[in-house]
Amino acid sequence: MAETNTTKIIVIGGGYAGLRAVEKLAKNPQNEITLFDKNSYHFMQTEVYDLIANEEDFAQVSVDLFTFCLGFKGNVVFAKQEVCSVDFTNKKVISSTQRHNYDCLVIAVGARTKFVADVVGLRTHAHGIKVLHRAMQFKQKFEMALFKRVEQSGTTCSAINIVVAGGGLSGVEIAAQMASFAKCFYKKNNFICRKLNIILINSGEKILQGLDEKLVAKSDKRLHKLGVSIRHNCRVTEISEQSVTLSCEEVLPMDFMIFAGGIEPNALVCQLQLEKNEKGYIVTNSHLQVQNHEEVFAIGDCTTIYNKGSVVAPTADTAEQTAEVCAQNINNLTQKKPLIAHAIKSRGVLIALGRNYAVAKIYGIYFSGYFAFVMKKIVERVYAKKLDMHSHKGCKKIFKD
Prior knowledge:
With about 400 residues, the protein is of the alpha/beta class. It is built from ten helices and 26 strands. The longest helix is centred in the last third of the chain and has 31 residues, at about 370-400.
């Protein structure tokens, strides 16, 4: 630990875990915190489906990290730099431009869409939506495709075929939102051309593998009501510019392919000389410390969290819980107090299934329909409001200066 009265803390990653860690650590005036991210904004991934379906614009699903960090009491700064590596022996974070010393380090770089290498054409023809610029690119292309179909009205009208690969939360939510948006779009505008085919590819026998059976059943029923066609026990094997080939020997026409088939560790995690599990995620102990370095913590989607031997689903909720435990343990470590063991578990599941509809299980209680949708929106708005408060404070400091 540092011999001075202050503790230099570096947080790598401006996602859900990283921002909550900064927020909690900033409450201790002895902490000097630097947040690193290659992007200048935080992307609220839980609202990406609303962005694509024109429910919100990009300003509503992102937060400026410069003003966010300025909104604290002078002990947080933001560095828009991509971290290339970490020298754990000499306690230095190495970016593309310089080296930065730390007393404590928080790795919160999250995960990325896993583009399976043996699927021909996947990287070339599929869209990932875990990052803002890719979501925006898909949104623009989809809107242009809708416009072209409208221009065809009264002459020839070909369908827009959207294939969504992945029957997990991301795949189910994006398929439902796209189908719901299309229904509202065509109904509102009374266009003659109303052809939109959405096909969800699911590798298992049921969607939402591992989730509560009641939530699975309600979600499946909702998807069918929206007209989403589901292919179970199939995988994508090849993608061309206009078609998708499945392992069940079916070839689907395709205008857009959205890949939500899983996640993998961020590129930085692969380079770090740390112990990792069989899937490449950083191994942490019960205090969220990495192996052999007590001053280094890994939180959020870049590590695997266990509760009583079972893996805890990597959600925004669990990411923020890891951040809170991490911040407490860093303060305890610097004050030479005992560290606390985490007991992180999912506090609930909220699944958005199109406009004004969601299903949920919160602390064991089930909800569905409009009420569940409102609950999800409240959770998202409260989160965004907290971030906006710091950003507004940061803006005031800039304009005051």
